[in-house]
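Take a minute with the sequence and fold tokens given here and flag any structure token that looks odd. Thanks in advance.
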Amino acid sequence: SLVLYVEEAHKLPIKHFTNPYCTISLNSVQVAKTHPREGQNPVFTEEFIF
């Protein structure tokens, strides 16, 4: 299995940080997405197990 931790982002451009999220793709296929967060420095702290 593969365990992936998405922790945080820093200094996102102001025009793009309304509700930032991360998408996770394996072999060009989107397999997961984090919950949207607010702010220019969002903290996700999410774990994905594949």
